[in-house]
Amino acid sequence: MSGVVELNYETITKPDIIVEDGDILTIRGHGKFIIGDIDGTTRRGRLRLCADRYI
After folding, report:
1. What's 42's DSSP letter?
2. Residue 13, by phi and psi: left (phi above 0), alpha (psi -120 to 50) or beta?
3. What whole-number distance in Å separates Cα of residue 21 and Cα of residue 44?
4. Segment 10-37, tens digit of pLDDT
5. Counting Cβ atoms within 10 Å, is residue 25 exposed (0-12), middle (13-18) or buried (19+)?
6. What one-character-per-residue DSSP string does 5-30 give?
7. Domain segments of the chain: what residues?
8. Considering the entire predicted model, what is its pTM?
């Protein structure tokens, strides 16, 4: 499924993209989100993000 996710209005093709505070994440079928705080990592080493709905 190509073109499902965009980061700052550019289509993402690889899952290893680095996100930062203030980035806009668009997920087709779910809406736009703005990345807030990065709260650390999970037990599996993934980032824990706070995101708000972008209006």
Report:
1. -
2. alpha
3. 21
4. 999 888 888 888 999 999 999 999 999 8
5. buried
6. EEETTEE--STT----TT-EEEETTT
7. 5-53
8. 0.75
